[in-house]
């Protein structure tokens, strides 16, 4: 797999779906300003991926010009359950490492499925991405954005309604177009 193609597929998804459909109303400004860090994880085993995640936390602490980071994991976390297991471990480490209040993690995976939802529910596509990835969000930036957005708690429901209205075929095609950028 070519890193440039992986990055192109990810940018396609971020720009065309996350920003294009306004799934995250806070994403457009940092995306357009080039303040999102995109990184392809070179590791494919669980320990290596875990170390890469910890290293990205450290890097984000040092890089004040990046509002968020996407650590893209093209190999090693293909199974959604493996991804969720590692996500749980990382979320437990955040407070232990003194990162609580500094970063939040958002989770994205090609097979993302909300607990209790049907696999074919278009709502799952709010978190389906071309590759498994971990989204590091600077809490300070998020808090500032939330000050200017009325009723942010309604965002998930609005996204679910939008994607269900679009229908499964439309959301699948949108993601497939980005995946075609690979290779």
Structural description of this entry:
It holds the Pfam family DUF1415. This is Peptidase. The chain is built from 7 helices and 4 strands. The mean pLDDT is 94. The protein starts with a helix and ends with a helix. It is globular and about 40 Å long. The protein has 183 residues and is of the alpha+beta class. 49% of the residues lie in helices and 12% in strands. It has one domain.
Give the arrangement of secondary structure elements:
Layout: H1 3-19, H2 28-32, E1 36-40, H3 46-62, E2 68-72, H4 80-96, E3 103-108, E4 133-138, H5 139-147, H6 155-166, H7 168-179
Parallel strand pairs: 1-2
Antiparallel strand pairs: 2-4, 3-4
Summarize the structure.
This protein has 183 residues and is of the alpha+beta class. It has helices spanning 3-19, 28-32, 46-62, 80-96, 139-147, 155-166, 168-179, and strands spanning 36-40, 68-72, 103-108, 133-138.
Could you name the key traits of this structure?
single chain, 183 residues, alpha+beta, four-stranded mixed sheet, 49% helix, 12% strand
């Amino acid at each position: 797999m070519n890193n440039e193609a992986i990055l192109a597929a990810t940018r396609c998804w971020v720009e065309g779906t996350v920003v294009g459909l306004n799934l995250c109303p806070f994403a457009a400004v940092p995306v357009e300003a080039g303040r999102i860090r995109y990184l392809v994880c070179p590791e494919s085993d669980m320990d290596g991926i875990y170390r890469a995640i910890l290293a990205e936390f450290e890097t984000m602490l040092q890089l004040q010009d990046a509002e968020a980071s996407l650590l893209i994991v093209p190999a090693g976390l293909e199974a959604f359950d493996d991804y969720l297991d590692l996500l749980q471990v990382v979320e437990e480490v955040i407070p232990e490492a003194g990162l609580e209040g500094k970063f939040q993690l958002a989770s994205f995976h090609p097979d993302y499925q909300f607990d209790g939802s049907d696999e074919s529910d278009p709502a799952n596509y709010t978190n389906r991405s071309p590759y498994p990835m971990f989204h590091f969000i600077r809490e300070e930036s998020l808090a500032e954005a939330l000050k200017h957005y009325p009723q942010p708690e309604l965002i998930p429901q609005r996204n679910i309604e939008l994607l269900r209205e679009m229908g499964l075929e439309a959301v699948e095609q949108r993601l497939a177009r980005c995946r075609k950028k690979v290779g």
